[in-house]
Design a protein that fits this description.
This protein is of the alpha/beta class and 377 residues long. It has two domains: 233 residues, Aspartate Aminotransferase, domain 2 (3-Layer(aba) Sandwich); 123 residues, Alpha-Beta Complex (Aspartate Aminotransferase, domain 1). It is built from twelve helices and 14 strands. The strands form three sheets. An eight-stranded mixed beta sheet has the order 1-9-8-5-4-2-3-13, sandwiched between helices. Strands 7-6-10 form a three-stranded antiparallel beta sheet, with no helix packed on it. Helix 1 runs antiparallel to helix 8. The longest helix is centred in the last third of the chain and has 18 residues. The protein is globular, with a radius of gyration of 21 Å. The structure holds pyridoxal-5'-phosphate (PLP). The site of pyridoxal-5'-phosphate has 14 residues, from helix 3 and helix 4.
Length: 377
C-alpha cells in the first residue's frame, strides 16, 4: 500500500495507551505464543463488557463464525439462513462446513435481515424437504438487527441463532449487548473494527459445553491422551498472547470509542442535514448502535462512484456499501428470498470515514468536499 501522506482512511486503529504495557509484559515474560495470561485476561474483559458467560479468543472473526457452525453441528445438507447484505466473511464459513447458504433480504429500518423474508425462506425450504441448520444474523455497520422478531421466528421453528456482531461490539438491543441473545455471538478484532488486536476474533456463548468445544477445536482438537491423538477435525484458530495484550488495552477504552464513533455520526448528520435526498440511518427505538461506520444514501442525482472519485482526489477514502452476496459470482447458485432492497442500497450508498481518532479538521475537510459535490457551498 502506497498512499499519499495525510490520507483520511475509512476506519483505522486507535490505541488507548495501555496496550503496550500488556504487550511488553508478554515479551518480557516470554509468553510469545498462543498461551499466556493475556488470553484469559482478554476473555474475562470481553465477558465483563458484554455480560457473556463464556468467551473464547480466536485468530479472527471469520474463524469464530466457522467454529460457531462447527460446534452447532452444521454440515452438508443443512441450510444456513444468512443476510445477503453483508461482508463475504459472514457467509464463507457456511461453505467451509459444506452447508448451503440461503440468502435473506434486508428490511429498510436497520438494513439487516428482514424477519418476514426469513420466515418465508424457512417455510419454503422446509416445504422443499430441506433441513434448517441455523440462522446467522448480522448487525451491519454496528446497527442491531431486529432480534426480537428474528428470535420469535427462530423459536417457532426451533432453529439456533448465531449473531455475527463483528462490526457491532458495544451495540445494544433492548438493554442487552449484541452477541448475547443468540446461542452464540462472534466479534472481530480486525484492524478496521471499533477496537482491535491487529487481527483477531472471539466467540461468546452462555453454553459452557459449546464454549469448551470451540476451545477444543481451535487448538487442533487434541484428545486427552499423553500422545497426539485426534478423533475430530480441528483448527489452529487460537489468538496469540501478544495480540490478546493489545486487546486488553483496547477493551479498557471500548466505551470511549463507541462514544467517539457516535460523535462522528452526529457531526456528519448535523452538517449535511440540509442536503436534499441525503439519508442517514437513524436508530430504531430500543436500539443503540456503536456507529462503527457512518453510512449515507445519496440523493438521486449522484452515484457512489462519482462521490468516491471526488473524495479520492482529496486523498479521502470512502467505500460503497456491501455488494449483496446473492449477486456475487461465488454464490450465484445459492437461493435468495427478498425484494432486492439490498441492490438499491448498494446502488445508492456510501460509508464515510468514521475512525474514532478523526480530528475536527479532518472531519471538516470531508464535509467540505461532500458539500462541494452536492453544490451547496
Ligand atoms: C470483519 C467482519 C467479519 C470477519 O472478521 P475478521 O476478523 O476480519 O475475520 C465477519 N463479518 C462481518 C460482518 C465483518 O464485518
Amino acid at each position: 500500500m502506497n498512499y499519499k501522506p495525510g490520507r483520511i482512511f475509512l476506519s483505522v486503529p486507535h490505541m488507548g495507551g495501555h496496550e503496550k504495557n500488556y504487550v511488553l509484559k508478554a515479551l518480557e515474560d516470554n509468553w510469545v505464543t498462543t498461551t499466556g495470561p493475556n488470553l484469559p485476561g482478554f476473555e474475562h474483559d470481553i465477558c465483563q463488557h458484554t455480560n457473556a458467560r463464556h468467551a473464547v479468543a480466536l485468530s479472527s472473526g471469520t474463524a469464530a463464525i466457522h467454529l460457531a457452525l462447527r460446534v452447532l453441528g452444521i454440515g452438508p445438507g443443512d441450510d444456513v439462513f444468512c443476510p445477503t447484505f453483508t461482508f463475504v466473511a459472514s457467509a464463507n464459513p457456511i461453505l467451509y462446513v459444506g452447508a448451503t447458504p440461503v440468502f435473506v433480504e434486508s428490511e429498510a429500518e436497520t438494513w439487516n435481515m428482514c424477519p418476514d423474508a426469513l420466515r418465508q425462506a424457512i417455510v419454503d425450504r422446509i416445504m422443499a424437504g430441506r433441513k434448517p441448520g441455523c440462522i446467522l444474523v448480522v448487525h451491519l455497520y454496528g446497527m442491531p438487527a431486529r432480534l426480537k422478531e428474528i428470535m420469535t421466528v427462530a423459536e417457532e421453528f426451533k432453529i439456533p441463532v448465531v449473531e455475527d456482531a463483528a462490526e457491532a461490539l458495544g451495540s445494544r438491543y433492548g438493554g442487552h449487548q449484541v452477541g448475547t441473545l443468540g446461542s452464540i455471538g462472534i466479534f472481530s478484532f480486525n484492524g478496521n473494527k471499533i477496537v482491535t488486536t491487529s487481527g483477531g476474533g472471539a466467540l461468546i456463548t452462555a453454553n459452557e459445553q459449546l464454549a469448551n468445544q470451540a476451545r477444543f477445536l481451535a487448538a487442533q482438537a487434541k484428545d486427552p491422551a499423553p500422545y497426539y491423538q485426534h478423533s475430530q477435525l480441528g483448527y489452529n484458530y487460537r489468538l496469540s498472547n501478544v495480540s490478546a495484550g493489545i486487546g486488553r488495552g483496547q477493551m479498557e477504552v471500548l466505551e470511549k470509542r463507541v462514544k467517539q464513533r457516535r460523535e462522528v455520526y452526529v457531526y456528519y448528520k448535523d452538517r449535511l442535514k440540509e442536503i436534499e435526498g441525503l439519508e442517514f440511518l437513524p436508530e430504531p427505538k430500543g436500539s443503540f448502535s456503536n456507529r462503527w461506520l457512518t453510512t449515507v444514501l445519496l440523493p438521486d442525482n449522484h452515484t457512489p462512484e462519482s462521490i468516491r472519485l471526488a473524495l479520492e482526489e482529496e486523498n479521502i477514502e470512502v467505500r460503497p456499501l456491501w455488494k449483496p452476496l446473492h449477486l456475487q459470482p461465488l454464490f450465484k447458485d445459492a437461493p435468495y428470498y427478498g425484494n432486492n432492497l439490498s441492490e438499491q442500497l448498494f446502488s445508492r450508498g456510501l460509508c464515510l470515514p468514521s475512525s474514532s481518532n478523526l480530528t475536527e479538521e479532518e472531519l471538516g475537510k470531508v464535509v467540505k468536499v461532500l458539500l462541494q459535490q452536492f453544490q451547496q457551498m
